[in-house]
Amino acid sequence: MCEQLKSQYQLCEEIGRGRFGTIFRCFHPLSNQLFACKVIDKRLLTDSIDRQCLHNEPKYMALLSPHPNILQIFDVFDDDHSLSIVLHLCQPLTLLDRIINRPFLETHAASIINHLLQAIAHCHRLGVAHRDIKPDNILFDSGNNLKLADFGSAEWFGDGRSMTGVVGTPHYVAPEVLLGRDYNEKVDVWSSGVILYIMLSGTPPFYGESAQDIFEAVLRANLRFPSRLFRSVSSAAKDLMRKMICRDPSRRLSAEQALRHPWILSGGEASDVS
Ligand SMILES: Nc1ncnc2c1ncn2[C@@H]1O[C@H](COP(=O)(O)OP(=O)(O)OP(=O)(O)O)[C@@H](O)[C@H]1O
């Protein structure tokens, strides 16, 4: 671990683990504040694309900070063996832990999606696509404010460039990503729509036994609202999901447009769209 980091921060217990990063709680004696520190072990990055993307995360987080719904970055330490990123400390439970098998009230789901879309709209205004929107990357601070995290797969599209490359996570990835075509920032709106569907029903819209089966279901993009799961869900919420989980990206809402949908504007209280 970087000596410079250890001279400024006291690393405490491990609070999370991803594919490459281990997250520790840490204390900064100078400011008397607690933070989270993500330490990425460079030796685990055997893939050349992963190595190239290593510095994207702190770079994009610095560009996007501060925003009330984006995890704030405070410091970066880089040496031969590791990259350490000092971050705002959040609660240990992510949206994934809150979502499993527990449908949310529409008002609660609307509040979460509203804040997620505000984070995404901010990223898109600054030309950054997150590309891995999923419940595990949605954290909450001690005041229960939503914080979008993990910009390790983010990409710049700001000068009108389209993006390529298969990134994302099976249940949440947009079909155009899997097709290997060029795509744009609306992949983040698709993934957010999938999260909304899971919050309201407790199950993902596209599923299968294996990653391959899930990919095939995503590519078919046959969006259904089985009455067993959606009997009490409003038509306004279904209308928004249809417009976010829309196979054709040119017809899919942007994050800004989704924020203006009646169901979001009414805080999940609108039952019909007029
Ligand atoms: N700032 C934070 N405060 C509290 N917990 C955090 C924080 N950042 C990350 N975590 C915890 O650590 C876990 C892994 O973090 P993160 O997703 O950033 O790692 P990663 O290596 O990029 O993961 P991935 O495998 O998705 O690439 C999160 O799901 C969360 O539980």
UniProtKB/TrEMBL annotation:
<dbReference type="GO" id="GO:0004674">
    <property type="term" value="F:protein serine/threonine kinase activity"/>
</dbReference>
<dbReference type="InterPro" id="IPR050205">
    <property type="entry name" value="CDPK_Ser/Thr_kinases"/>
</dbReference>
<dbReference type="InterPro" id="IPR017441">
    <property type="entry name" value="Protein_kinase_ATP_BS"/>
</dbReference>
<dbReference type="InterPro" id="IPR011009">
    <property type="entry name" value="Kinase-like_dom_sf"/>
</dbReference>
<keyword id="KW-0670">Pyruvate</keyword>
<dbReference type="InterPro" id="IPR000719">
    <property type="entry name" value="Prot_kinase_dom"/>
</dbReference>
<feature type="domain" description="Protein kinase">
    <location>
        <begin position="9"/>
        <end position="264"/>
    </location>
</feature>
<keyword id="KW-0418">Kinase</keyword>
<dbReference type="Pfam" id="PF00069">
    <property type="entry name" value="Pkinase"/>
</dbReference>
<dbReference type="GO" id="GO:0005524">
    <property type="term" value="F:ATP binding"/>
</dbReference>
<protein>
    <submittedName>
        <fullName>Phosphoenolpyruvate carboxylase kinase</fullName>
    </submittedName>
</protein>
<keyword id="KW-0067">ATP-binding</keyword>
<keyword id="KW-0723">Serine/threonine-protein kinase</keyword>
<feature type="binding site">
    <location>
        <position position="38"/>
    </location>
    <ligand>
        <name>ATP</name>
    </ligand>
</feature>
<comment type="similarity">
    <text>Belongs to the protein kinase superfamily. CAMK Ser/Thr protein kinase family. CaMK subfamily.</text>
</comment>
<keyword id="KW-0547">Nucleotide-binding</keyword>
<dbReference type="InterPro" id="IPR008271">
    <property type="entry name" value="Ser/Thr_kinase_AS"/>
</dbReference>
<keyword id="KW-0808">Transferase</keyword>
